[in-house]
């Protein structure tokens, strides 16, 4: 993990549930910022590894990890995973003290966020939906963008700790708004990656030096994060990193389900979701989302 400096904040007793490619470094930043961190992971060996690396503690259940914590952070896979670490006899809610805050960084549905918020308030607890953007590199470098839904005083209470792994931490609105904002983020990315894939593939088929072309057009109106960070690796046919296609399809499924509820048409998003299905069928489910270009290359050479 890259070294970074942390703004001085009062140390807090916190927990972190879920130590995947995002959660592992996020929890590490909390520990390095001076907080007392206990972690939980479904695979206990990963939690033990984290504790050995950072000097924190691991716990065998979410309930035990959350015991006595003022803030419990989580980053798990989907709606059902979130419910599994929140609810039930061994869930975090069962171990949290009154007035403690659960901060969910999972990309999940707005529906499960509102449901979890209601459960929390019924138990004298607080819940924030706070999905992140910035990918694995953002988590490792402590430079994530966090979109938060929930009660404003609670959002502000969590801000000092969350800035340990964030470059921006913004309240979007009430419960569920953070997840809806993340859906907007993924909708925009899907169209960008497809457009970039078509452009790069077109240029290669035309015999252009595409790395030079990307340098040139990257200084103009076509510039984007995807172009800056993924354009040249697409030219090189390198995809063994980054945000996996499988995860993107999960996220786009959430977007499409929400669009059916709110009536907003997503024709391009639906099409790109199908294209990602083609990439999965080619065995690329764990490749970076920029591997979308592979389905075009099969058709042009």
Structure, explained:
Helices cover 52% and strands 13% of the residues. The chain has helices spanning 23-32, 44-54, 62-66, 79-86, 92-95, 110-122, 135-141, 152-162, 177-205, 210-217, 225-235, 245-262, 267-281, 293-300, and strands at 13-17, 36-40, 57-58, 71-74, 101-104, 126-129, 132-133, 144-149, 166-173. It is an alpha/beta fold and 301 residues long. Helix 9 packs across helix 11 and helix 9 crosses helix 13 (267-281). The longest helix has 29 residues, at 177-205.
Low-confidence stretches: none
Distance between the termini: 39 Å
Instruction: Please give the share of residues in helix.
Output: 40-55%
Strand order in the largest sheet:
3-2-1-4-5-6
Please tally the β strands and state the result: 9
Number of domains: 2
Give the C-alpha Rg: 20 Å
Q: Which class of the largest domain in CATH terms?
A: Alpha Beta
Write down the overall geometry.
Answer: globular
Question: In brief, what are we looking at here?
Answer:
The protein is an alpha/beta fold and 301 residues long.
Write the layout of secondary structure elements.
Blueprint: E1 13-17, H1 23-32, E2 36-40, H2 44-54, E3 57-58, H3 62-66, E4 71-74, H4 79-86, H5 92-95, E5 101-104, H6 110-122, E6 126-129, E7 132-133, H7 135-141, E8 144-149, H8 152-162, E9 166-173, H9 177-205, H10 210-217, H11 225-235, H12 245-262, H13 267-281, H14 293-300
Parallel strand pairs: 1-2, 1-4, 2-3, 4-5, 5-6, 8-9
Antiparallel strand pairs: 7-8
